[in-house]
Amino acid sequence: GAVLREVLSRPERTKLDGGDDLAFYDVPRFVKHVDADFLDKVTELYRQRIPEGAAVLDLCSSWVSHLPPEVYYSKVVGHGMNPSELARNPRLTAAFVRDLNKEPEGWPLEDRSLDAVVCCVSVQYLQQPERVFAEIYRVLKPGGVCIITFSNRMFYSKAIAAWRDASGYARCQLVRQYFQAVSGFTEPQVLTETLGEAGSLVGRLLGPLTRLLQRSSSDPFYAVVSYRNFRPE
C-alpha cells in the first residue's frame, strides 16, 4: 500500500478554480451528471464485479449510488462533499463528508474492512490521487475490488489540469497509473463496455460499427478496475 511514485507534477494538479471545494459543493445538486445509458453500464459493472453481501464504499458519492437495486450489501458507506445529498441516498448505511484534496488520508474506516470501493465520474477532481489510492488500498480487504468509472463530462473549472483537455485514452492511462503508483494493486484493467454488452446475442449481431454508433450517441463509458493483492476466482 505504499506510494511508489508521484504520477502528477505540481502544474498537473492545479485547477482553474482554486476556491474552496467544500464551498463549491455547498449547494445540493439533485441531478445525474451523465446519461441513463452510461449509468446502466456502471450498474451492470457493479453487478458483475461486486459480490452479494459485500461491504462497499461509494467514494465521492451523492444522492444516488448506481448500485444494482436487487443486490443485498452488508453495508454501503458513502463519502461526499454535501451532507444533504448523502442524507437523501437510500442505499447508504453510513456516510462522511471530507475534502480529499485537503485530507486525502485518515478516513474513518478500519484497515481491510471493505470488499469494494467505487467512484463514479469524480476521479477527475482528485489533486492528490496517489495518496487517495493508497487509502483505498488500506481499507480494502485482500481480493477487494476498486472500480473507477468516468465519461467526458465534468465541472471543467474543478478538474485537474492533467485531465481537462486529455483524450479518453489518456484519461484511462492516467487512472491506470494511479493504481500502479501504489504497491499491491493488481494490473489495472480498462473497460469501455460491460461483459453483458459484448457477450449478449444482440451485441454479437449488431457488429462493431453499430456498437460504435450507439456509443457516439451517449456519454462514452470508461472504467478502470483493479484489486488489492489478487483477483478472486
UniProtKB/TrEMBL annotation:
InterPro entries: Methyltransf_11 (IPR013216), SAM-dependent_MTases_sf (IPR029063). GO terms for molecular function: S-adenosylmethionine-dependent methyltransferase activity. Pfam families: Methyltransf_11 (PF08241). SUPFAM superfamilies: S-adenosyl-L-methionine-dependent methyltransferases. Residues 100-148 form the Methyltransferase type domain. This is Methyltransferase type 11 domain-containing protein. It comes from Volvox carteri f. nagariensis. The lineage of its organism: Eukaryota, Viridiplantae, Chlorophyta, core chlorophytes, Chlorophyceae.
